[in-house]
Design brief:
Length: 338
């Protein structure tokens, strides 16, 4: 009798990740804690979304977790190999298996370089392919993202916003990565074009078996693509859950407030939730205890001294769920029988 196979190791495994920035000021240098001991895993073939308000640390987390930005502490293992604290050459070799797609690709393209050069450049840097092979690979990449051979000799300014994003995705796929990091990939696009790009990403994920790390503030985009969602507040993970469970029954008051901020037409009818008041505190002077407690509507209605004194620990809170909260929301009632 054969023993059950062990679950596959995560593609990306992050533990205790911290990032601190030195901020000069009139009274001397201060320290900004952008990430505070963040833990998460990304499974092979999974799409994990990072959500939170502007300045919550989403992009910093993605960049530190993939070796694009040096972390101050912690561990980030990609396919079992450490990215943090390793020699630059080793990290660069691993990062070739990670593709990046950013919010507005216009600034990342050389305006004097044609598409054939844009797509051939990473192939040339990697080496091993002759010019004709690089040209054929560039044509295959264009076809994969819905562009044609006639686009090969155009310049970036000759493309629409949606076409430029398709080109950015093609370039990210050039070295056949295992992971795509998508940093607000549709926020600079019209709504109709956003849907095309999201459908393309879903197609490519299935076709190439890609894992996706998605950074987004648009929760409709997250619902379309993500398997799981990690919610960040002031550089701290406050809730991690499967997308359906999180959107259907958030457990953290901050998550509930984020969902309540969506336009009414994009979300199902839910009990009214308190909207967020004020702005996040300065990361240069975070509040003691739970970082969210000064804005938390649940604590205002149900005061608890722990919120202002003890930082909550991210702990299991259900099947494949984790939560950092002293006053979690009660479970949603089961749906009424039809």
């Amino acid at each position: 009798m054969s023993s059950p196979s062990a679950p596959a190791a995560p593609l990306l495994e992050v533990r205790g990740l911290e990032k601190r920035f030195v901020v000069p000021g009139a009274a001397g240098s201060g320290e900004l804690l952008a990430l505070a001991r963040v833990d998460f895993d990304l499974a092979r073939g999974e799409c994990l979304a990072l959500v939170g308000e502007s300045g919550s640390g989403k992009s910093t987390l993605a960049r530190c977790a993939t070796g694009l930005l040096p972390a101050s502490a912690g561990s980030a293992r990609f396919d079992g190999r450490e990215l943090i604290g390793r020699p630059r050459r080793e990290v660069a070799a691993l990062r070739r298996r990670i593709g990046f797609v950013f919010q507005d690709p216009r600034g990342s393209f050389d305006p004097r370089q044609r598409v054939d050069g844009i797509l051939a450049e990473p192939l040339a840097i990697q080496g091993g392919l002759k010019p004709r092979q690089r040209r054929l690979r560039a044509l295959a990449l264009l076809a994969a993202v819905g562009l044609s051979a006639e686009h090969l000799f155009r310049y970036p300014h000759e493309f629409s916003g949606g076409q430029r994003q398709r080109l950015a995705i093609a370039r990210a796929l050039a070295l056949e990565p295992q992971l795509l990091v998508l940093d607000e990939p549709t926020s600079a696009l019209d709504v109709s074009v956003q849907a095309q790009i999201l459908n393309l990403l879903a197609e490519l994920r299935r076709e190439f078996g890609l894992s996706l790390l998605l950074i987004a503030h648009d929760l409709a985009v997250v619902q379309h693509l993500a398997d799981r969602v990690a919610v960040l507040y002031l550089g701290r993970l406050v809730e991690v859950a499967p997308a359906a469970a999180l959107f259907g029954a958030p457990q953290h008051p901050y998550t509930q407030a984020l969902l309540a901020s969506r336009p009414q037409r994009s979300r199902p009818a839910q009990p009214p939730a308190a909207r967020l008041a004020g702005d996040p505190p300065s990361p240069l002077a975070p509040p003691p205890g739970c970082a969210f407690h000064p804005r938390c509507p649940r604590r205002a209605a149900q005061p608890d001294a722990r919120c202002a004194e003890l930082p909550p620990i991210l702990s299991p809170s259900g099947p494949n769920r984790a939560l950092a909260c002293h006053l979690p929301l009660p479970p949603s009632p089961p749906p009424a029988p039809g």
